Amino acid sequence: MRKHIVSMFLSLDGVTQSPGGPKEDTSDNFHLGGWIVPYADEAISENVRDLLAQPFELLLGRCTYDIFASYWPHVPADSGSRGIADRFNHVAKHVATHRSDTLAWHNSHALKGELADAIRALKRQDGADLLTFGSGDMVRQLLAAGLVDELRLLIYPVILGHGKRLFGDDALASAFTLAHARSTPGGVLITRYTRDGEVRTGAFE
């Protein structure tokens, strides 16, 4: 069975909304979009390259898909991001969407039926691991269903106060193991957590 890996930008207070630009997601009057941009450096770029080094297929929510589809197919040939663009443009893209309009980005497929059932079916198939960037609404549903196997969290040294958060009250109680951690010169924590069964409890005597 293939894994589902989620890569997410996270503030210290758990906000994921609109990390890459002011206009990504301004819902509920969110006005701090672009909060990861001042911390961009080579360590974060290296993390992206490492994440994309293994075979993968993309699993995206519709909002993130639309952002990606408006950018990656149009990256110039001489851009430093061309290698990533080529990977994203080539791989299969599975999209959680309720809209009926066509998914025009090459090799894109709309998920059918109930989301958790569709992801369980995908994970049972042979093939590369499923990799999700952003897609917070979808990820919250999959955390509630226990369908996220690995969390790649980049935790930024900011408190945003309000905004959409990664973990909802309905997330399935689960234990994770910290498999990797490093910090960037700007204070961003780059972490990798792998699922490790049920939450274990105890008591101090």
Describe this structure in words.
The chain is of the alpha/beta class. It has a single domain (4-56, 75-107, 118-128, 136-195), classed as 3-Layer(aba) Sandwich (Dihydrofolate Reductase, subunit A), CATH 3.40.430. It has 5 helices and 8 strands. The chain has helices spanning 42-51, 62-69, 82-90, 115-124, 136-144; strands at 4-11, 56-61, 93-96, 108-110, 129-133, 150-156, 176-183, 189-195. It has an 8-stranded mixed beta sheet with strand order 4-3-2-5-1-6-8-7, with helices on both faces. Strand 7 and strand 8 (189-195) form a beta hairpin. It is globular. The N and C termini lie far apart (41 Å).
Instruction: Order the strands across the largest sheet as they lie in space.
Output: 4-3-2-5-1-6-8-7
Give helix % range. Answer: 10-25%
Number of helices, counting only DSSP H or I runs of 4 residues or more: 5
Tell me the distance between the termini: 41 Å
How many strand units?
8
Class by helix and strand content? Answer: alpha/beta
Which series of helices and strands comes N to C? Answer: EHEHHEEHEHEEE
Task: List low-confidence stretches.
Answer: none
Nutshell version of this structure?
The chain has helices spanning 42-51, 62-69, 82-90, 115-124, 136-144, and strands at 4-11, 56-61, 93-96, 108-110, 129-133, 150-156, 176-183, 189-195. The chain is an alpha/beta fold and 205 residues long.
